[in-house]
Each structure stands twice: as C-alpha cells, then as structure tokens.
Backbone:
C-alpha cells in the first residue's frame, strides 16, 4: 500500500514538474517570437510588454526569450535599448512578485511603459534625435501600455472556470489580440504577391463569422487586420478592410456559406481597387484564395468546427439522463426513510432499556436524583427522536428534488452559456448556471455564486437575461447560504400579488407573531404567519423561529411538508419548557391563481371571491408539541381581483360575525383594509386582555 501511495505521489510530482516546464517553455518561445515583431517606424515593444505581464516566475523565461530574440535581429542601438528595457522590466516584475501586487494590472503597465520610456529617452538624448523621435517614442509608450494590458488580461483569462467558447467577449478580445501579436513578424512574408498569413487570416475570419457569430468575427478581423497592417504605412488599411468586410459578411451569414464568402470577397474587391494596383492585387488574390479554402473545406472539418462553436442546445432531460437522476434521488429518499425507521427502532429499544435500569436503581436514589435522571432520559429520548425526524426530512427533500427534476422538460444550455458570458462582462464568474423550462413552458434561471451581491438583482441584469432567453423575468431573488448564494430569476407570471399587512404587540415592543412574505423562484408568492405561544419576548422567539426557519427551508428548495418536520424538531429541542408555534401559510401560484393553504394549529383564513366571503378553517396541531405533526391542507383558485386574508388568533377570537361585519365595511385598498381590521380589533379589545394581533391582506392583480 505504501509503495502504491509513494508511486502515485511521484507521478503527481512528475506531472506538476512537466506542467510547469511546459508553461515556462511557452513563455520563453512567446518572448522570442514577440521580440521579432515590429510596428511602423521599427517599434518593437512586444517582448517588453510580455515580460511585464507574465505571471509568477514566467517573467524570467519571457525576458530570456525576448533578449535572445532582440539579439538575433541585430546588434544595434535600438535592439540594445530593448534588451535593457526587458531587463529593467524583469527587475520590476520581480519587485511586483515580492510585494504580491500582481493582481493589479496597473503595476505591470507601469513597469513596462517606464522601461520603454526611460530607455527611449536615454537613446534619443545620446543620438541627439529630433522632436519626431520623441513623438514616435510617445506612440510606442502608449502601444506598450495597451499591449501589456491585453497580454495581462489574456494570460489571466478565466479559462479554468469557463470554456474558451463561453468566455465573455471582452476576454475573447484580449486573448485574440495577444495571440495575434505572435504573427507580427510574418506580416510581410510573401510568395510572389501572395501573403500566406493573410490567406490564413481570411479563412479564420470567415469561419468565426459564419460559425460563431458576427461579434467574434469582428474582433478577430480587427485584431488580425491591425497586426497584419501595423508593420508598414501601406498596409494600415488592412484593419479597416478586414473589419468592414467582416461586417458585410456577417449580414449575409444567415443566407449560406456562399453568401458569407461572397459578401466578404465583394467588399475586399472594393478595397483592393481603391488602394491601387500592387497592394490591391495582393489583397484581392489573398481574399480569393482564403474564400475558396473556406467554401471548399471538407464536411468532416466543418462538422468539427460547428460542434466546437455550438456552446449548447436545448437538452431535453427525458430518457436516460433524467430518469436515471430521478431514480437515484428517489432511491436515496427511500434509503433515508429506511434509516429513519432503523434509528427510531433503536431509539425505542435504548429508551426501554434505560427506563428499566432507572427503575431498577430506584431504591438507591433519592427522589430528586430519580426525577433528574428521568428528565435527562426523556430529553435524550427527544434528541434521538429529532435525529430520526431529520432523516425523514432529508428523505422528503430528496423526494421533492426528484419531483422537480421529473417535471423539468428542457435544460436550455444555449441560454445558460450566453448568461455566463453576460455575467463575465461584469467580471462575475458563477459556479453554475441552470436555465430550466418546466412542463408548463415556464422558465427559471438559477445562478450559483461563490459570494453574494445585492446589485445582481438589478433591473438592468434582469432585462439582459430576458433578452437572452426571449422572455420577461421578474426581479431576481438572492438566497444566501454559508459560503454561496443562489440568484434566481423566474419568468414574469400572469398575476402579481398586492399585499398589505399590519401588526400589534399586546405586551412590550416584541410581538409574538411573525409575518413573512416571500417569493420562490417558480412564480409563487408565499404568505406566512407564525404565532408563538403566549405574549412577549418568549412568544416572539418561538414565532420568529418558526416563520424564519420555514421561509429559509422553502427558499432552499424544501417542500412544505419536509420543512414542517424540521421546524417541529427544532422547536421540540429548543428548551426544556413547552415551546410551540402555529404556522399559517398561503402559497399562491401567480401563473394560474391556484392557492394552497397549509395550517399547523392556525386559525381560520378568509377568501373574498367575486365579492363573497368564504371561511377556510382546518383542524391541526401547532409545531413543537408532538412528533409527526402534519399540515392540514386545502386548495382554492383565485381569479383576478380575488383576495385572501390571514390572521392570528388575536383577531379571529373576536368571532366570525364580528369579522364578517368588519370585512364588509373595510376600505378597498389592501393596506388600508389591513390597517382598518387591526384598528377595529384593537378598539374591540380596548378594555379587555388583548393578545398579539397580525393580519396579511393580499389581492390578486394583473401583472
């Protein structure tokens, strides 16, 4: 065993060494190649820029490659100057590494530009250069700053968390520009009047435009056009020619592969004629050959290209994948249920044994010791009961998840990747994104983040995601977990819920009732009133615990029944004293108006439908008294303009006739109505012993 572990460790170390060697070799050859490239006026800051932007120890190898490259291109004053600039930049990079300041690209830009500028000024002074040389140096400094920033962003692109084809457009641009500069030295290499690198550029641009879209095609065209044209004044027009021709090709990309190539070639022909005989003929020939290669590419190659750029399609999770997942979740649910039964059986046996032992030792203990031991045994037994209930709760949650996956019809991978790219524009890199369409055709988007941000729920982001999915979404909702947050967008439903609520504390500032109004990620509004036993701070604690824990569990994906079991268990073990809370819940589907009522010890609710008042009273036990309590349930259907009223017993105890008379005379607004009912109840209980009072008044409105 030790030999196997040692061998595996050696293999991992060897793999890590090879990986680092590959990275350093890449830096070396990149430094070597970029040092050969030059722009107008013989400007060659690219090797310096790469050294400034290289991460960790990479600057040593890129500097070595750049120095060798500058040396190979000639031992003259300019190249000696660039070699000195590379050495200065490497020293600056070493200082950045010591200060652990690499995370800020500004420092890389500063050391690169300062090296270029200082060595340039020194050479110009020694050579007594004219003012034109200083203007050229200023241009080179600006070029160096821009290229350094592109190199930095390209090297640090988030390729580990995202595939290349799903990267944000900005990061794609940095990578493309950075890679394009490697071909600077090939821009003026020609065979007769044909430029091989231009032909390759035409093929790449047409391929990107047709298969990946106009945006990527434009970025590639402008980057390659700049790189191929920057080496001389005569070739500068290539940037505009490639960019405009790609724009025209993109307009015809929906027609066919021939339309894309034909439109590009027509535009290139125009630029060829406009630029003159010699340069124009070369561009025209390069355009023709590149377009022909693009059109005549074998089907096997085009299929692979299309597959590469196909960043996701609608994936129906029926068949093997979905059924397998649902089956495993249900199997796990049944397993948790079986474990709960086993734990419960063991608990009963242990409780029976310990009770017998306690009775057998009765004569050796005082009454106080016996009672204390009985209390300890009972509390221990309750804790074991809670452990058993937790397994049942987990079983219910897994079953809820299985049901949710079973109802999902489409996982829209295309939309997920587009949303990932959109978030990348804001430098937000989520852990996971799911765009799910259920069997009713409703879409919801769930974004898992490593940290929370309230700004992500803004209208601008909601609208951008809506454009991507071609749907209207409600404002986003953030659910915070320990180390992660879930941002959810649900499709904008047919209805909205106008809600008013009012509350009165009978004793002190703390009210024993807790009111929660939440929206889940599936187009439901959930109204909750939890009434803690009694009044004051203790009742407030029980009510807040009941409603708060329930709302968090529902937001996390638990079903109502599973959530109730956990809330009940928590209240059972909260303290040695009796601790209970009623739970009154209305779950309203804003797409259909379906209203589900869940009651655990809660008083009657009232529905106003078509002007008629209907009482909904269900018999049930509050949470925190006994194990195994369940919600009493009823379902109603609300139409446009219908209302539902939830109240705590501090109001309902006044009697049904009083309630009907009060509701009949209340104002039409939901908040005014809630305030009116509460004020009438307070007046009625003015000279009596009042209880805490809470009311939620909600009406279904057109969204």
Residues:
């Amino acid at each position: 065993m030790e030999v196997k572990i040692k061998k595996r460790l050696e293999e991992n170390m060897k793999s890590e060494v090879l990986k680092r060697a590959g990275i350093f070799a890449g830096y070396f050859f990149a430094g070597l190649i970029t040092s050969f490239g030059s722009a107008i006026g013989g400007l060659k800051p690219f090797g310096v820029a790469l050294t400034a932007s290289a991460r960790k120890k990479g600057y040593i190898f890129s500097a070595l490659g750049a120095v060798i490259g500058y040396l190979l291109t000639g031992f003259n004053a300019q190249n000696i100057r660039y070699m000195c600039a590379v050495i200065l930049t490497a020293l600056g990079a070493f200082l950045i590494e010591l200060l652990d300041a690499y995370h800020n690209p500004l420092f890389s830009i500063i050391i690169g530009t300062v090296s270029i500028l200082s060595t340039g000024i020194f050479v110009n002074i020694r050579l007594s250069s004219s003012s034109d040389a200083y203007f050229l140096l200023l241009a080179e400094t600006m070029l160096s700053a821009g290229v350094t920033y592109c190199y930095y962003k390209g090297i640090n692109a988030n390729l580990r968390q995202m595939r290349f084809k799903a990267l944000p457009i900005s990061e794609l641009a940095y990578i493309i520009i950075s890679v394009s500069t490697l071909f600077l030295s090939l821009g003026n290499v020609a065979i007769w009047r044909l430029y091989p690198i231009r032909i390759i550029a035409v093929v790449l641009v047409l391929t990107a435009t047709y298969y990946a879209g106009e945006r990527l095609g434009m970025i590639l065209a402008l980057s390659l056009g700049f790189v191929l044209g920057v080496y001389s004044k005569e070739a500068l027009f290539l940037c505009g020619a490639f960019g405009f021709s790609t724009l025209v090709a993109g307009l015809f990309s929906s027609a066919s592969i021939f339309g894309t190539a034909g439109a590009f070639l027509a535009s290139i022909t125009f630029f060829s004629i406009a630029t003159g005989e010699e340069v124009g003929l070369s561009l025209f020939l390069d355009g023709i050959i590149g377009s022909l290669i693009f059109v005549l590419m074998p089907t096997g190659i085009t299929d692979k290209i299309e597959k590469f750029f196909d960043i996701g399609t609608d994936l129906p999770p029926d068949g093997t994948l979905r059924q397998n997942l649902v089956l495993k979740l249900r199997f796990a649910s049944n397993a948790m249920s079986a474990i709960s039964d086993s734990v419960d059986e063991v608990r009963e046996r242990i409780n029976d044994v310990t009770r017998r032992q306690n009775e057998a030792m009765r004569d050796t203990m005082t009454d106080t010791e016996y009672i204390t031991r009985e209390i300890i045994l009972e509390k221990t037994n309750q804790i074991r009961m809670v452990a058993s209930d937790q397994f049942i709760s987990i079983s219910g949650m897994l079953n809820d998840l299985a049901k949710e996956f079973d109802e999902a019809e489409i996982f829209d991978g295309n939309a997920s990747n587009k949303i990932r790219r959109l978030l990348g524009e804001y430098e937000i890199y989520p852990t996971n994104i799911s765009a799910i369409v259920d069997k009713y055709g409703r879409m919801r988007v769930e974004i898992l983040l490593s940290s929370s941000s309230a700004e992500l729920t803004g209208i601008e982001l909601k609208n951008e995601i809506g454009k991507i999915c071609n749907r209207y979404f409600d404002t986003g909702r953030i659910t915070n977990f320990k180390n992660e947050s879930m941002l959810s967008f649900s499709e904008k439903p047919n209805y909205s819920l106008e809600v008013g609520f009012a509350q009165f504390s009978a004793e002190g500032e703390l009210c024993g009732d807790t009111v929660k109004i939440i929206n889940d990620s599936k187009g439901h509004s959930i109204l909750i009133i939890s009434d803690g036993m009694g009044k004051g701070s203790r009742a407030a604690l029980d009510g807040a615990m009941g409603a708060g824990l329930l709302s968090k569990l529902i937001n996390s994906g638990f079903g109502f029944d599973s959530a109730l079991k956990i809330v009940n268990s928590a209240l059972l073990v909260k303290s040695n004293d009796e601790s209970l809370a009623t739970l009154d819940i209305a779950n309203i589907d804003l797409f259909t108006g379906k209203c589900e009522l869940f009651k655990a010890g809660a008083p009657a609710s009232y529905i106003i439908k078509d002007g008629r008042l209907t009482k909904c009273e269900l018999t049930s036990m509050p949470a925190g008294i006994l194990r195994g309590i369940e919600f009493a349930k009823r379902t109603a259907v609300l139409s446009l303009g219908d209302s539902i009223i939830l109240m705590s017993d501090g109001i309902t105890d006044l009697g049904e006739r009083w309630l009907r008379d009060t509701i009949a005379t209340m104002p039409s607004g939901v908040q005014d109505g809630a305030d009116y009912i509460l004020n009438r109840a307070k007046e009625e209980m003015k000279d009596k012993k009042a209880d805490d009072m809470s009311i939620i008044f909600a009406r279904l409105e057109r969204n």
